[in-house]
Design brief:
By secondary structure, the protein is α+β, with helices and mostly antiparallel strands. It contains five helices and seven strands. A seven-stranded mixed β-sheet has the order 1-2-3-4-5-7-6, with helices on both faces.
């Protein structure tokens, strides 16, 4: 991977940056998945600075920002000890977000951020990681499958009252 990168724990002071990355990456990967009005409403509700401040002040939400050559390239959000319905695992983490800006694709930065989160989970005695990924995001599905995740179910990710995207539920056990 050319250049230098680092992963830093995010705090409430990073809320504006995280909101901007979240909006941009969501539009890049999901912007065409629903009517524009639905996408805009979703982004305004879920990715505002105020929402990020609230989430960053909750110690259960662990955010990290990935920097590459001094520029914010993406971020992750993981929650420890959050089993999914039907799980028999006691200690399992949900990887709720791993977002990488398109300008940084092809540099193996997403894999670096995923491996960082995997190591963090193992340090915190998690038995695995689970997540949801949009079925039509072939790049992301391939990324997680290649990293060892298996499809274990499905989930309808609600964008608006009238639109939901079909998602795979995926699991990686350690």
């Amino acid at each position: 991977m050319p250049g230098t990168s680092s992963i830093i724990r995010a705090t409430a002071k990073d809320a504006v940056l995280l909101a901007a990355i979240a909006r941009d990456t969501f539009i890049e990967s999901h912007g065409h998945s629903a009517p524009a009005a639905d996408i805009d409403a979703y982004i305004n509700e879920k990715y505002s600075t105020a929402v990020f401040i609230e989430e960053l002040n909750d110690p259960g939400n662990i955010y990290h920002i990935l920097y590459h050559e001094g520029k914010a390239a993406g971020f992750s959000k993981i929650i420890f000890d959050l089993p999914y319905t039907g799980s028999t695992l006691q200690n399992i983490a949900k990887l709720e977000r791993i977002y990488l800006l398109k300008a940084f694709y092809g540099l193996q930065l997403g894999l670096q951020l995923l491996r960082f989160n995997m190591a963090l989970c193992q340090q915190h005695h998690q038995q695995g990681i689970w997540l949801y990924v949009w079925k039509e995001n072939a790049r992301a599905v391939h990324f997680y499958t290649r990293a060892g995740f298996s499809i274990i179910g499905s989930y309808d990710f609600k964008i608006s009252a009238t639109h939901a995207n079909p998602n795979h539920q995926m699991l990686l056990e350690f």
